[in-house]
Predict the structure.
Amino acid sequence: MFVRLLTTALSATVAHAHLAPWHKGMYGFNGVTGSINYNTDDVVHPLYQLTKDQWWFHHYNNVDQFPPAEGDFLELPAGGSFTVEIASNRGETSLSFNGKYATDWPDGQNYPEDYNVPTCITSPNMHTQNQTRAAGTAFAIAYTSDITKVTEDNLAVFTVRYHTPWKRITSYDVPADMPACPEGGCICAWGWVPNGCGQPNMYHLPYRCMVTGAKSTKVVGAAKAPVWCQNDPDACTKGPKQMIYWNQLDGNNIEVEGVDADNEFKSPAYNDKCGFPDGAQNDIFTGASSGSSSSSSSGSSSSSSGSSNSKSSTTSSSSSKADTGAAAVNKAKTPTSASSSAPSSTASAKATAGTTCSPRKVRRALAKRAAVHGGAVVHRRKAGHVF
Ligand SMILES: *[C@@H]1O[C@H](CO)[C@@H](O)[C@H](O)[C@H]1NC(C)=O
């Protein structure tokens, strides 16, 4: 039994796994099969050289078809901050197994504070040499509850965190002027374009979100594509900016050529090289006031203090179902009726084209993990990439 589960886990993930911000408000929180997978990593696969219909909201493996549970939202306290857990697998966050496998780092392991690998940190797969070089990540928001209505023009970057992804617990600041979302909430997205080492891919993951404690009725303006503007602030796109769409077969919104100020090939990212300041993006409210303000969702600004949410409220309810989680993993090979179309293996292969991973490392890592945990719980470790 254990061996079979292990094999399933292995074949499902022969690496390619990178990082994503976990939260119960995310699409694909339970995986993409219709069962609950406490070890899912379906959202962490990077997007590279895909057509827009495939990369948009990670459609290539149907992440956008698996909304969060009713009532689960990423809450954005106006003027405050919110926290997510960046990890390579849900099993390595506080959101599975009571956080038993979570550490300060995204892969359940421990590393020195000044973790630095001159070639590239591949464990966890952070696409950087050290924290200073980490490219930066962002959340964007669209003021619609309907994920199919989200476009690059109404999805505006509202917060950026420089030098991420790095540690597991990561917080982002919310502009004080963020207006309330419509009745059913907003759609948010997370983006990351790594820089410097590894495959130059990108991330585009959907969330259900809502602004809490909103006092403003300002309106987020139409987002415009960011441009490369390192050391030339006047050239930067002003006002609300689109997410960065790069290195895909179509739907790209930025082009760069040549080298940056460090004499390295330009790599657009959520940092000052593309005109994104760190923290809340306070210049996005250029939209015309609609007059009729949307329904208010203020009042329950619970998580506004930011800090550590490592023991989230979902943890206890999850753990009581931990036993069925293993069964869910086992069933993962059979798509259920919940998935309208089975994941296409060609799309999946395309998505990871160019990433070469080492199966040997995966096996060694799994063997090590199994030894450590005595096989009590099927828990996968991420494999290091070979570039
Ligand atoms: C980070 O990595 C870069 C590139 O290898 C290196 O030049 C820099 O000194 C490193 N910084 C730290 C703080 O280790």
Q: What stands out?
A: The CA atoms of residues 88 and 165 lie 11 Å apart.
